[in-house]
Amino acid sequence: MNAAAIAPLSAQGFDLPRPYLLFLGDADDSGFLKTGLGLRDWAPDLCVAEYKCDGARASLGLPLMRPDEAYRAGARALVLSVASIGGAIAPAWVPYIVEALEAGLDIISGAHDRLVEEPRLRAAAERLGRRLIDVRVPPPGLPIASGRPRSGKRLLTVGTDCALGKKYTALALAAAFRARGLDADFRATGQTGIMIAGSGIPIDSVVSDFVAGAAERLSPDADPGHWDVIEGQGSIFHPSYAGVSLGLLHGSQPDILVLCHAHGRDRIMGLPDYVLPSIGEAVELSLRLARRTNAAVRCAGVSLNTAGLPADEAEALIARRSREWELPVADPMRGGPSFERLVDACLG
């Protein structure tokens, strides 16, 4: 096998072998399984089983299989579905990944560490004729943004903070648009979304000067009736990640914003000295910044993450917040009339 065969794939489309065996590593807490949870929830037909290190306690609720069993069941790739501190590929995982290679599976990773930079994995892949696919690699030749208006329609999910449902909201809205007979694409900007959709650009790996240009490439000129529903990243209110959020906001040139917020969260994740903005402040600043490249942008409503609340409490909260914020409010994962009203507002 030559080196090019195991080099990271680039460009918007990824040649991902499917379906998947989801590798959970040595995680004891499902909080480290963001990629696995996203694949399980949004691409269940692609998820054959889960596989983990001996003694690991976290689970996605999928059948537990060794790689050879999963291959016989139809799996064609092992996906690293667990996040480690700093995005590293833990040394303890390597023997398990090698076992997957030996079972006939290619390996897909969204970690910051590159599969091809781990000597044992590279040697095993070359020996066995298998592929190591790093999706957290931006395409080459990204331009700086032009700011030129583009045809078609665009919706971008933005947030009061990180990790509160921007990807899930974008996926749910794209599916709802298609269910209404509209031409709509989910545009992935993170590794999990790319694995779900099979295409996208990992925005957090793009050099800062080219983030807005990457967003322009991700949602190019389209038919006037076509919708690109773009997965947001970070938050303009997060001191660590505001830069990538602003570049994505300008380059996407959204016609519609949907603000995402997590019920009960009042401090920036990882930076508890920083208080979250009010919904009014978040909407106002997001629109003001978005108008730099699309003067007609508007906020259609709020996607409210109510995970952990009983259904009746969540429904009452959504109705109360909608009155308070004077916007359509819904939890896309719960669906129902409130979500349909949010969809109406996006399309209206």
The radius of gyration computed from the alpha-carbon positions, rounded to a whole number of angstroms, is 20 Å
Beta strand count: 13
Number of helices: 11
Strand content: 15-25%
Task: Please describe the topology of this protein.
Layout: E1 20-23, H1 34-42, E2 47-51, H2 67-72, E3 77-80, H3 94-102, E4 106-109, H4 119-128, E5 132-134, E6 153-159, H5 166-179, E7 184-187, H6 191-197, H7 211-218, E8 227-230, H8 242-252, E9 256-262, E10 267-268, E11 271-275, H9 279-290, E12 298-305, H10 311-325, E13 329-330, H11 336-347
Parallel strand pairs: 1-2, 1-3, 3-4, 4-5, 6-8, 6-9, 7-8, 9-12, 12-13
Antiparallel strand pairs: 10-11
Structure commentary:
The protein has 348 residues and is α/β, with parallel strands linked by helices. The chain has 2 domains: 3-134, Rossmann fold, CATH 3.40.50; 153-347, Rossmann fold. Helix content is 32%, strand content 17%. It is built from 11 helices and 13 strands. The chain has a 6-stranded parallel β-sheet with strand order 7-8-6-9-12-13, with helices on both faces. Strands 2-1-3-4-5 form a 5-stranded parallel β-sheet, with helices on both faces. Helix 3 (94-102) packs parallel to helix 4 (119-128). The protein is globular and about 60 Å long. The model is unreliable at 1-11 (pLDDT under 50). InterPro entries: DgcN-like (IPR011669), DgcN-like_C (IPR035086), DgcN-like_N (IPR035402), P-loop_NTPase (IPR027417). Pfam families: DUF1611, DUF1611_N.
